[in-house]
């Protein structure tokens, strides 16, 4: 199967079967989103959503969070992975938003990545979700699904996967395709025991087709 056929088949299946694909993080504004995405690093969205209501009630704005202490923020996020580092980063992020951006989340990818705790993936998520930017955030789910299906070939890093996906997926579809791949990796193409038998894109999956050929021998 040609790579172009694999992309066409997989994109087509998702477009038909998952026309609505959105972030599972709960947020009401750009500040809440960037905080939630920062907290979600190496942590489940479910856990983040359990934690953020009290956090956002205590600190509804960057100004409110900037006036807090690291220890106070830690008290709200202690059930999240790496709470000490994340509390420090959230405080630094809030203060930079207030000091340099008027309390607003910047819409420039480079400026976003200047914020403490905001790397390329987090910046891309914010840009894709808030402003529908044509970017492909790559987390562990996207990295795994792309490699298994053959959407990425020989990619050793998230950046290499990102560049391959951005090259082969039509730009306007990238923000939604990001969610397609994340949700597929979260619920179907899981790290352990992927549900290949019930997978809608199995017909185009490189790994699945290789396994089926091997079983016939």
Features:
single chain; mainly alpha; 217 residues; 12 helices; 0% strand
Outline the secondary-structure elements.
Elements: H1 3-17, H2 30-39, H3 45-58, H4 62-66, H5 70-77, H6 83-100, H7 109-112, H8 120-131, H9 140-149, H10 158-168, H11 174-187, H12 206-216
Helix pairs in contact: 2-8, 5-6, 9-10, 9-11
What does this structure look like?
The chain has 217 residues and is mostly helical. It contains twelve helices and no strands. Helix 2 (30-39) packs antiparallel against helix 8 (120-131), helix 5 (70-77) crosses helix 6 and helix 9 crosses helix 10. It is elongated and about 65 Å long. The model has no long low-confidence stretch (mean pLDDT 95).
Share of helical residues: 55-70%
Helix and strand sequence: HHHHHHHHHHHH
Q: Kindly name the structural category.
A: mainly alpha
Query: In angstroms, what separates the terminal alpha carbons?
Result: 19 Å
Beta-strand fraction estimate = under 5%
User: Which sheet architecture does the biggest sheet show?
Assistant: none
Low-confidence stretches: none
Tally of individual helices: 12
What does the overall shape look like? elongated
């Amino acid at each position: 199967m040609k790579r172009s056929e694999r992309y066409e088949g997989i994109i087509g299946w998702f477009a038909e079967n998952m026309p609505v694909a959105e972030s599972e993080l709960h947020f009401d504004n750009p500040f809440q989103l960037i905080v939630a995405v920062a907290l979600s690093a190496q942590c489940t969205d479910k856990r983040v959503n359990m934690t953020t209501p009290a956090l956002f009630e205590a600190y509804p704005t960057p100004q409110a969070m900037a006036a807090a202490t690291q220890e106070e923020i830690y008290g709200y996020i202690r059930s999240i992975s790496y709470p000490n580092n994340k509390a420090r980063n959230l405080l630094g992020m809030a203060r930079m938003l207030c000091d340099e951006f008027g309390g607003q989340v910047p819409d420039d990818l480079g400026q976003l990545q200047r914020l403490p705790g905001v790397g390329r993936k987090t910046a891309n998520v914010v840009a894709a979700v808030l402003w529908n930017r044509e970017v492909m955030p790559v987390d562990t789910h996207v990295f795994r699904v792309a490699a298994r299906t053959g959407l990425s070939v020989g990619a050793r890093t998230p950046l290499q996967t990102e560049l391959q996906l951005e090259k082969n997926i039509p730009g306007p579809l990238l923000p939604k395709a990001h969610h397609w791949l994340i949700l597929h990796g979260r619920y179907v193409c899981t790290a352990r025991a992927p549900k290949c038998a019930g997978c809608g894109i199995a017909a185009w999956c490189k790994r699945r087709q290789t396994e089926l050929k091997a079983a016939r021998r």
